[in-house]
Amino acid sequence: MPPCSTHNARSYAFTTKCHIRSENSPIHGVPRETTPCGLRDRVPLTELLLLFLFCHPFRQRREGVIVTFIGEIMGTIRVENLYKIFGNKPKDGMKMLKDGHDKQAVLEKTGMTVGVANASFTIETGEIFVIMGLSGSGKSTIVRLLNRLIEPTSGRVIVDGQDVTAMSDSELVKFRLHNMSMVFQSFALMPHQTVLDNAAFGLELAGVDKEKRCQRARETLEQVGLAGWEDLYPDQLSGGMQQRVGLARGLAVDPEILLMDEAFSALDPLIRTEMQDELLKLQEEHQRTIVFISHDLDEALRIGDRIAIMEGGHVIQVGTPDDILQNPANDYVRAFFRGVDPTNVISAGDIVRDTHPTIIVTKAGSLRTTHEILSGSEREHGYVLDAKRRFLGVVSSEGVRNALEKGLPDKPLSQAFLEEADPVNFDESMQDILPMVATSSWPVPVVDADGVYKGVVSQNRFLRTLHRTEDANQGEGGEQ
Ligand SMILES: Nc1ncnc2c1ncn2[C@@H]1O[C@H](COP(=O)(O)OP(=O)(O)OP(=O)(O)O)[C@@H](O)[C@H]1O
Ligand SMILES: [Mg+2]
Question: Do 157 and 47 form a contact (C-beta atoms < 8 A)?
Answer without folding.
Answer: no
